[in-house]
Protein backbone atom coordinates (compact mmCIF):
# COMPACT_ATOMS: atom_id res chain seq x y z
CA UNK A 1 0.00 0.00 0.00
CA UNK A 2 1.41 3.39 -0.96
CA UNK A 3 1.52 6.31 1.36
CA UNK A 4 -1.46 8.14 -0.17
CA UNK A 5 -3.67 5.09 0.28
CA UNK A 6 -2.44 4.60 3.83
CA UNK A 7 -3.70 8.03 4.73
CA UNK A 8 -6.90 7.81 2.71
CA UNK A 9 -8.05 4.24 2.67
CA UNK A 10 -10.66 3.68 -0.05
CA UNK A 11 -14.29 3.82 0.97
CA UNK A 12 -16.30 0.64 0.56
CA UNK A 13 -17.89 1.89 -2.61
CA UNK A 14 -14.45 2.78 -3.99
CA UNK A 15 -13.03 -0.68 -3.54
CA UNK A 16 -11.54 -2.43 -6.49
CA UNK A 17 -14.43 -3.47 -8.66
CA UNK A 18 -12.57 -4.86 -11.57
CA UNK A 19 -13.68 -8.10 -13.23
CA UNK A 20 -10.58 -9.80 -11.83
CA UNK A 21 -11.53 -8.81 -8.34
CA UNK A 22 -15.09 -10.06 -8.82
CA UNK A 23 -13.71 -13.31 -10.09
CA UNK A 24 -11.57 -13.72 -6.97
CA UNK A 25 -14.51 -12.90 -4.69
CA UNK A 26 -16.61 -15.34 -6.61
CA UNK A 27 -13.97 -18.01 -6.20
CA UNK A 28 -14.00 -17.55 -2.40
CA UNK A 29 -17.74 -17.60 -2.34
CA UNK A 30 -17.62 -20.70 -4.48
CA UNK A 31 -15.28 -22.36 -1.98
CA UNK A 32 -17.79 -21.68 0.79
CA UNK A 33 -20.65 -22.89 -1.37
CA UNK A 34 -18.88 -26.15 -2.27
CA UNK A 35 -18.05 -26.63 1.40
CA UNK A 36 -21.74 -26.51 2.42
CA UNK A 37 -22.92 -29.30 0.11
CA UNK A 38 -20.08 -31.52 1.37
CA UNK A 39 -21.27 -31.09 4.93
CA UNK A 40 -24.83 -31.71 3.88
CA UNK A 41 -23.78 -34.82 2.00
CA UNK A 42 -21.95 -36.06 5.06
CA UNK A 43 -25.00 -35.45 7.24
CA UNK A 44 -27.19 -37.26 4.73
CA UNK A 45 -24.79 -40.21 4.49
CA UNK A 46 -24.47 -40.43 8.27
CA UNK A 47 -28.24 -40.25 8.67
CA UNK A 48 -28.69 -42.93 6.01
CA UNK A 49 -26.21 -45.18 7.80
CA UNK A 50 -27.96 -44.70 11.12
CA UNK A 51 -31.25 -45.41 9.40
CA UNK A 52 -29.82 -48.61 7.88
CA UNK A 53 -28.58 -49.77 11.27
CA UNK A 54 -31.99 -48.95 12.74
CA UNK A 55 -33.82 -50.88 10.01
CA UNK A 56 -31.56 -53.93 10.40
CA UNK A 57 -31.95 -53.79 14.19
CA UNK A 58 -35.73 -53.55 13.98
CA UNK A 59 -35.94 -56.41 11.46
CA UNK A 60 -33.35 -58.56 13.22
CA UNK A 61 -35.89 -60.81 14.96
CA UNK A 62 -37.50 -61.49 11.56
CA UNK A 63 -34.15 -62.04 9.85
CA UNK A 64 -33.02 -64.31 12.69
CA UNK A 65 -36.21 -66.33 12.38
CA UNK A 66 -35.41 -66.96 8.71
CA UNK A 67 -32.18 -68.66 9.73
CA UNK A 68 -33.14 -71.08 12.52
CA UNK A 69 -30.56 -72.08 15.08
CA UNK A 70 -28.80 -75.42 14.75
CA UNK A 71 -30.89 -77.03 17.51
CA UNK A 72 -34.09 -75.97 15.74
CA UNK A 73 -32.83 -77.49 12.47
CA UNK A 74 -31.92 -80.65 14.36
CA UNK A 75 -35.40 -80.75 15.87
CA UNK A 76 -36.92 -80.44 12.41
CA UNK A 77 -35.57 -83.83 11.38
CA UNK A 78 -35.41 -86.85 13.62
CA UNK A 79 -34.48 -90.44 13.01
CA UNK A 80 -36.45 -93.20 14.66
CA UNK A 81 -35.24 -96.76 15.12
CA UNK A 82 -38.20 -99.05 14.48
CA UNK A 83 -36.26 -102.20 15.34
CA UNK A 84 -37.35 -102.50 18.99
CA UNK A 85 -41.06 -101.89 18.28
CA UNK A 86 -42.96 -105.16 18.49
CA UNK A 87 -45.91 -105.98 16.19
CA UNK A 88 -49.00 -104.43 17.73
CA UNK A 89 -46.95 -101.94 19.75
CA UNK A 90 -47.29 -98.18 19.51
CA UNK A 91 -44.74 -95.57 20.47
CA UNK A 92 -44.79 -91.80 20.64
CA UNK A 93 -41.90 -89.60 19.53
CA UNK A 94 -41.68 -85.83 19.67
CA UNK A 95 -41.17 -84.06 16.38
CA UNK A 96 -41.35 -80.30 15.94
CA UNK A 97 -42.90 -80.11 19.40
CA UNK A 98 -45.73 -82.40 18.39
CA UNK A 99 -46.37 -86.03 19.36
CA UNK A 100 -46.05 -88.47 16.49
CA UNK A 101 -47.67 -91.86 16.85
CA UNK A 102 -45.86 -94.81 15.29
CA UNK A 103 -47.89 -97.97 15.17
CA UNK A 104 -46.45 -101.35 14.20
CA UNK A 105 -49.66 -102.78 12.81
CA UNK A 106 -50.69 -106.39 13.03
CA UNK A 107 -52.08 -108.09 9.87
CA UNK A 108 -55.62 -107.95 11.30
CA UNK A 109 -55.30 -104.21 11.97
CA UNK A 110 -54.22 -103.64 8.38
CA UNK A 111 -57.08 -105.79 7.10
CA UNK A 112 -59.54 -103.90 9.27
CA UNK A 113 -58.37 -100.55 7.92
CA UNK A 114 -58.73 -101.82 4.34
CA UNK A 115 -62.17 -103.34 4.69
CA UNK A 116 -63.93 -100.02 5.23
CA UNK A 117 -66.15 -98.65 2.42
CA UNK A 118 -64.47 -95.44 1.41
CA UNK A 119 -67.72 -93.49 1.11
CA UNK A 120 -68.57 -94.18 4.74
CA UNK A 121 -65.59 -92.12 5.86
CA UNK A 122 -65.97 -88.45 6.87
CA UNK A 123 -62.61 -87.77 5.20
CA UNK A 124 -62.33 -90.49 2.55
CA UNK A 125 -58.79 -91.69 2.13
CA UNK A 126 -57.44 -95.08 1.11
CA UNK A 127 -55.29 -96.77 3.76
CA UNK A 128 -52.56 -97.50 1.21
CA UNK A 129 -52.20 -93.78 0.56
CA UNK A 130 -51.51 -93.16 4.23
CA UNK A 131 -48.65 -95.59 4.72
CA UNK A 132 -45.38 -96.34 2.99
CA UNK A 133 -45.20 -99.89 4.29
CA UNK A 134 -48.32 -101.75 5.27
CA UNK A 135 -47.21 -102.60 8.79
CA UNK A 136 -46.08 -99.11 9.74
CA UNK A 137 -48.52 -96.28 10.39
CA UNK A 138 -47.00 -92.88 11.20
CA UNK A 139 -49.37 -90.03 12.14
CA UNK A 140 -49.27 -86.78 14.08
CA UNK A 141 -50.95 -87.48 17.41
CA UNK A 142 -53.03 -84.33 17.54
CA UNK A 143 -56.80 -84.47 17.20
CA UNK A 144 -57.92 -82.52 14.16
CA UNK A 145 -60.90 -81.09 16.04
CA UNK A 146 -59.31 -78.83 18.65
CA UNK A 147 -55.87 -80.26 19.14
CA UNK A 148 -56.12 -82.68 22.09
CA UNK A 149 -53.85 -85.72 22.14
CA UNK A 150 -56.00 -88.82 21.54
CA UNK A 151 -55.79 -91.86 23.81
CA UNK A 152 -54.81 -95.30 22.58
CA UNK A 153 -51.04 -95.35 22.53
CA UNK A 154 -50.96 -97.58 25.58
CA UNK A 155 -52.75 -100.93 25.54
CA UNK A 156 -54.72 -100.00 28.63
CA UNK A 157 -56.08 -96.79 27.13
CA UNK A 158 -59.43 -96.53 25.31
CA UNK A 159 -59.10 -96.92 21.54
CA UNK A 160 -62.73 -96.33 20.54
CA UNK A 161 -64.93 -98.55 18.41
CA UNK A 162 -62.51 -98.72 15.50
CA UNK A 163 -59.40 -99.91 17.31
CA UNK A 164 -57.39 -96.77 16.63
CA UNK A 165 -57.51 -93.75 18.93
CA UNK A 166 -60.12 -92.04 21.06
CA UNK A 167 -60.04 -88.34 21.80
CA UNK A 168 -61.24 -87.71 25.35
CA UNK A 169 -61.99 -84.04 24.77
CA UNK A 170 -65.10 -84.34 22.58
CA UNK A 171 -65.23 -88.00 21.66
CA UNK A 172 -63.70 -88.20 18.17
CA UNK A 173 -62.66 -91.70 17.18
CA UNK A 174 -59.99 -92.77 14.72
CA UNK A 175 -59.38 -96.16 13.11
CA UNK A 176 -56.21 -98.19 12.63
CA UNK A 177 -55.31 -95.99 9.68
CA UNK A 178 -55.69 -92.81 11.77
CA UNK A 179 -58.81 -91.82 9.85
CA UNK A 180 -61.63 -90.11 11.68
CA UNK A 181 -64.68 -92.35 11.95
CA UNK A 182 -66.86 -90.57 14.46
CA UNK A 183 -67.11 -87.30 16.38
CA UNK A 184 -66.51 -83.67 15.57
CA UNK A 185 -62.98 -84.04 14.13
CA UNK A 186 -63.30 -82.88 10.51
CA UNK A 187 -60.33 -84.69 8.98
CA UNK A 188 -58.00 -87.64 9.49
CA UNK A 189 -54.89 -87.54 11.64
CA UNK A 190 -52.12 -85.92 9.65
CA UNK A 191 -49.44 -88.09 8.07
CA UNK A 192 -46.15 -86.21 8.54
CA UNK A 193 -43.39 -86.19 5.93
CA UNK A 194 -41.03 -89.10 6.49
CA UNK A 195 -39.01 -91.69 4.61
CA UNK A 196 -37.43 -95.02 5.25
CA UNK A 197 -33.67 -94.82 5.59
CA UNK A 198 -33.40 -98.60 5.98
CA UNK A 199 -35.64 -101.55 6.82
CA UNK A 200 -35.82 -100.46 10.43
CA UNK A 201 -35.22 -96.74 10.41
CA UNK A 202 -37.29 -93.75 9.36
CA UNK A 203 -36.46 -90.09 9.20
CA UNK A 204 -39.18 -87.62 10.07
CA UNK A 205 -39.12 -84.18 8.55
S1 LIG B 1 -60.24 -82.05 20.43
FE1 LIG B 1 -60.55 -84.11 19.90
S2 LIG B 1 -62.67 -84.27 19.70
FE2 LIG B 1 -62.36 -82.21 20.23
Model description:
- With 205 residues, this protein is of the alpha+beta class.
- The protein folds into two domains: 3-66; 74-204, Rieske [2Fe-2S] iron-sulphur domain (Rieske Iron-sulfur Protein).
- Helix content is 33%, strand content 20%.
- The chain has four helices and nine strands.
- The protein has helices spanning 3-7, 19-66, 70-76, 107-114, and strands at 78-81, 90-95, 98-104, 136-140, 163-166, 173-175, 180-182, 194-198, 201-204.
- The strands form three sheets. The chain has a three-stranded antiparallel sheet with strand order 1-9-8. A three-stranded antiparallel sheet has the order 2-3-4, with no helix packed on it.
- The N and C termini lie far apart (93 Å).
- Bound molecules: FE2/S2 (inorganic) cluster.
- FE2/S2 (inorganic) cluster (FES) is lined by residues 143, 145-148, 167, 169-172, 183-185.
- FE2/S2 (inorganic) cluster binds at residues 143, 145-148, 167, 169-172, 183-185.
Helix fraction by DSSP (H/I, runs of at least 4):
25-40%
Number of domains: 2
Q: Whole-number radius of gyration?
A: 40 Å
Helix/strand/pairing category: alpha+beta
Bound molecules: FE2/S2 (inorganic) cluster
Query: Can you list the strand order of the major beta sheet?
Result: 1-9-8
What would CATH call the homologous superfamily of the largest domain?
Rieske [2Fe-2S] iron-sulphur domain
Question: What are the secondary-structure elements, in order, as H or E?
Answer: HHHEEEHEEEEEE
CATH class type of the largest domain: Mainly Beta
The CATH architecture of the largest domain? 3-layer Sandwich
Instruction: Characterize the overall form.
Output: globular
Largest beta-sheet characterization: 3 strands, antiparallel
- Overall mean confidence score, pLDDT: 79
